[in-house]
């Protein structure tokens, strides 16, 4: 069973600034610092932020479900501002999913405005179809919101100088 969920959020920064956060390892650092209720640790296991990079995400103890996951950067297009990441170990893969892919695309809207479109694609084994309810865009939407707030704070700090 295949599914897809999408979320879009307008950012009040140029696409290049948004990409500097969402298209790199920087978003992992921001998530670890600003979402301790969800993420205990985000570790770089392999790579430098390019295709093939592997991150290990450890969830905060006490949360329901898996304790963590490893994700691999499978596509990075710096021209089109598209990054794709797939879960390669743990997370939803432990619950019968055979694919759990996140695509982040930063779309230029104007000189000082952009949109981040987040897409979640998943496949789940037929015998585990009941677990489809676990596929949610909510956590990704929260990560994007945290990123937006981070960008806004840094933009305000730059304007003050």
TrEMBL record:
Keyword Metal-binding: no
Family: Belongs to the BetVI family.
This protein's record includes keyword Transport: no
Domain spans labelled Bet v I/Major latex protein: 3-131
Provenance organism: Medicago truncatula
EC numbers for this chain: 4.2.1.78
Gene Ontology biological process: abscisic acid-activated signaling pathway; alkaloid metabolic process; defense response
GO terms, molecular function: abscisic acid binding; lyase activity; protein phosphatase inhibitor activity; signaling receptor activity
GO annotations of cellular component type: cytoplasm; nucleus
Top-level EC class: lyase
Underlying gene: 25494434
Keywords from the named record: Alkaloid metabolism, Lyase
PANTHER family: BET V I_MAJOR LATEX PROTEIN DOMAIN-CONTAINING PROTEIN, OS08G0374000 PROTEIN-RELATED
InterPro entries listed in its UniProt record: Bet_v_I/MLP, Plant_def-hormone_signal, START-like_dom_sf
Identification of the protein by name: Putative (S)-norcoclaurine synthase
């Amino acid at each position: 069973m295949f599914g897809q969920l999408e979320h879009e959020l307008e950012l009040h920064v140029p696409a290049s600034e948004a990409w500097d956060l969402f298209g790199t390892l920087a978003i992992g650092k921001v998530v670890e610092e600003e979402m301790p209720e969800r993420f205990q640790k985000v570790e770089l296991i392999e790579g430098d932020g390019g295709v093939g990079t592997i991150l290990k995400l450890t969830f905060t103890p006490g949360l329901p479900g898996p304790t963590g996951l490893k994700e691999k950067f499978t596509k990075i297009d710096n021209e089109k501002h598209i990054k794709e990441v797939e879960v390669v170990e743990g997370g939803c893969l432990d619950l019968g999913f055979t694919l759990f892919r996140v695509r982040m695309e930063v779309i230029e809207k104007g000189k000082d405005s952009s949109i981040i479109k987040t897409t979640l694609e998943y496949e789940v084994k037929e015998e585990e179809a009941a677990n489809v309810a676990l596929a949610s865009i909510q956590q990704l939407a929260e990560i994007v919101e945290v990123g937006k707030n981070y960008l806004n704070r840094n933009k305000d700090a730059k304007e003050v100088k």
